[in-house]
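Dear colleagues,

I hope this message finds you well. In preparation for our joint manuscript, I am sending the G-protein alpha subunit (Sparassis crispa) sequence together with its predicted structure, so that both groups work from identical material. I would be grateful if you could confirm receipt.
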Amino acid sequence: MPARSPPVSPVMPEVNWPPIPPPADSELDRALRLEEEKEAKKRSDAIDHAIELEREEMRKQRHNTKIVLLGQAESGKSTMLKNFQLHFAPKAFQAETEAWRAVIHLNLVRSVNFILDLLRGGTSSGSNRFSPPASLDDLRPLRMRLSPLRQVEIILVKRLSVDNTSRDAAGIDDSTPWYYGRASEVSIRSGSGWKALLCRHRQQLNSHADELVSARQVLDACRDDIVTLWSNPTVHAGLRGEGVCLQEQSGFFLDEALRVGHIDYEPTYTDVLRARLQTIGVEEHHLTFERLASRGEKWIFYDVGGAREQRAAWVPYFEDVNAVIFLCPMSAFDEVLLEDRSVNRLLDSFNLWKTICSSKLLGDKNFILLLNKSDILKTKLESGVSFVRYVKSYNDEPNDAEHVSEYLKRKFVSMHRHLSPRRRHLHVHITCAIDISVMSAVLVRIREVIIMKNLAATDFL
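The corresponding structure tokens are as follows:
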């Protein structure tokens, strides 16, 4: 029997890189091939570099402090964010004040046009409560002189709306000027970049810039007439008859029409804090601290819409935040929601607070409660509005801002204690978000609380 031949081991081909060029490679082919290999290597390196940059950014993001601002519409969330910017990044805040001038002018013009609409009979009931009729006749020349402010409003809305939408699309409707006793607002979608756009218009010589200048000139020419309108007793009597108090609404500048309407007007920090512009959706704001002790520190704020139809957007921002700042407008105890007039605004804040406190996603987060608009609360109570009329459980306690504020503080603290899924600290401040000096101390304390919590979470404490 013949001997069995040993199995032949397969010979693995030697791997060479770069691959051996074909034997018939000409000089031209070789040059083209080498160029293609060079380009492929550059693309590969660029992809690797982009991936590394993305990883680095993700590492940085994990170390950024993230804060979500919660509360119903007009609770002061955007004003609170402006306070953070003013206190911790004053240079960036200063750079944006020019853009806010158009918003402040729009706030003023809309208040004037709101009054003019009431004068012509656009009230909640459809009837004109301004009386006697002779007084309205006396105001007719004044109304005619102020009529150019309609066009000023259209121009400002178009510039702020970024996409040059029409007047109707921007939310202005002459057929329904009266909206539950409130001057109408412009709503800007999140991420619209309106500040940058307005700054570009200021720097460029184009039709947009010319329109803004023309609008300012018209407003300047109408300043004295605005003052005359606002000081007229018939106007104030009619507003009271409709249950309207423009002074208590955000973005009120009628008392300073001469200054704000001047052609050379430059917004003050307080003006910017008082300016009102409603944002639809979730705005993400990046704040880089500029002060020496915290320079370079980065915080990310999520300013979410407070209207009922926007609250479903809140939940995705709960899981990855370091702190929740909840704002309750204390002065709203006698007001109702614009989107549902059967719901009291203070009761709505209570219900929102209960929902947030009981959220398991927020079980280990910092909770900071700001009982806001203490200035308006004080004015309202001193004018004779009874708190117990709207909040029966207040009983016979004094009808003043100090006692009402303490009562609300006890209510919110009690709800937090009973509804929280786990024990945690609650930090409460009674605030007036447009008072810069008072807010400075509050902001420093808020930063200390958040930093201490962050350090504890990373085992530094």
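For the figure legend, we might mention the following. Residues 97-274 form one domain. The mean pLDDT is 81.

With kind regards,
E.M.
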